[in-house]
Design brief:
Elements lengths: L8 E7 L4 H8 L8 E9 L6 E11 L4 E7 L1 E2 L2 E2 L9 E7 L6 H9 L6 E4 L3 H7 L4
Antiparallel strand pairs: 1-7, 1-8, 2-3, 3-4, 4-7, 5-6
Amino acid sequence: MEVEEDLSFLLFGLVSNHKASKLLFFLNQLESLNFERVADLDLPDYNPNSEISFSKFAFHDEENHLDFYVLSNKEFGLCLFNDLKQFDYLLIVRGGLEFFNQKKFTQSCMQLSGIQFMAPILNPKILSKISWII
């Protein structure tokens, strides 16, 4: 399966014992990042009077034409993607991926005290599920 260039993205799973705001504080310590909270990802529930929300953060790197998103994968005991339940957060990078040094970025993130583990997710089935979010 080929993914169109404008829909291509990188996906990372993050493990952290911190709440979303604290994790983003650590990520913003990296020189090039400045995440801000954006509207939560709301999923409709079977009950029309309730919704399930997952925290969402975004940063747009104009210089390198990259968009970064962090989504909470776990909220209120629920998991956004059960296939990725081992990860607390999902980090999505899209845009000018030719300007993105994945190895250097991963190494920098792993040095942050707020991240216990970070791994790229390459499974095409999972990537296709996540593409609707971005």
